[in-house]
Write a structure and sequence with these properties.
Layout (H helix, E strand, L loop, with lengths): L3 H31 L5 H22 L5 H24 L4 H31 L1
Helix pairs in contact: 1-2, 1-4, 2-3, 3-4
Length: 126
């Protein structure tokens, strides 16, 4: 049985998580530097959760136990910050962008789970 599709899924999940983490960290740094209307704590939270997601993406790629849980935690933190920012920007948390962000995170987790199952089964067989 070929594990190429599973490895591709794992690579796509890793790239997606890394990109999301880089975007969040860069946006947090820009918010901190430009002193927008957001609080300093929220800018720092974006940077920290983004960096955690980047590290977790590397752990997901090499199938380290706990790497996916760390990535899920970082994405949940970024989701919470996104809801906070939406309320500050628009006065209300719009449902559609939050659901879209959650679905994208769920898709990344699904790809990672699908890919890691094939890799771990392959290494157990020898």
């Amino acid at each position: 049985m070929s594990y190429r599709p599973r490895r591709l899924a794992l690579s796509l999940a890793t790239l997606g998580m890394s990109g999301y983490g880089l975007y969040a960290a860069a946006r947090g740094l820009i918010d901190l530097a430009a002193q927008h209307d957001f609080e300093i704590i929220i800018g720092l939270a974006l940077v920290v959760f983004g960096l955690i997601l980047i590290v977790a993406a590397a752990l997901v790629r090499v199938v380290i136990p706990g790497g996916l849980a760390l990535a899920i935690g970082a994405m949940l933190g970024l989701q919470a910050v996104a809801i906070h920012n939406a309320v500050h920007l628009y006065g209300d948390a719009a449902i559609l962008p939050q659901v879209a962000l959650g679905c994208a995170a769920a898709a990344l987790v699904t790809l990672a789970v699908y890919g890691s199952r094939g890799i771990t089964e392959d290494t157990r067989r020898g």
